[in-house]
Amino acid sequence: MNEPPPRQPVDDGVDVSLIRWMLSLTPEERLDVLQGFVDSVAELTGGVPS
After folding, report:
1. Could you read off the pLDDT of 15-43 as tens digits, one per residue?
2. What is the pLDDT, as a whole number, of residue 50?
3. DSSP letter (8 states) at residue 12
4. How far apart are CA 14 and CA 26, in angstroms?
5. Which of 1, 5, 23, 24 has CA atoms 20 to 30 A from the CA of 15?
């Protein structure tokens, strides 16, 4: 899986690097990344990871 690029803010102050990175992933890779976030939050809050 690709690593997110370094942050590159543009003139209007919006950092689109994470959006571009997520769009570069396949749908399955996107779901894997998001599931990792969900599992991390569940672990930190004492919830049950899926």
Report:
1. 788 888 999 999 999 999 999 999 999 99
2. 59
3. T
4. 24
5. 1
Rounded CA gap, 25 and 10, in Å? 22
Q: In whole angstroms, what is the distance from residue 24 CA to residue 18 CA? A: 10
- Token pair, residue 47, equals 């919830």
Judge residue 41's burial from the number of C-beta atoms within 10 Å of its C-beta, 0-12 exposed, 13-18 middle, 19 or more buried. Answer: exposed
- What are the backbone angles phi and psi of residue 30, rounded to the nearest 5°? -60, -45
Q: How far apart are CA 26 and CA 22, in angstroms?
A: 8
Provide DSSP, 14-30: -B-HHHHHHHHS-HHHH
Q: Which of 36, 43, 33 is nearest to 3 (CA)?
A: 33
Structure tokens at 35: 């599931």
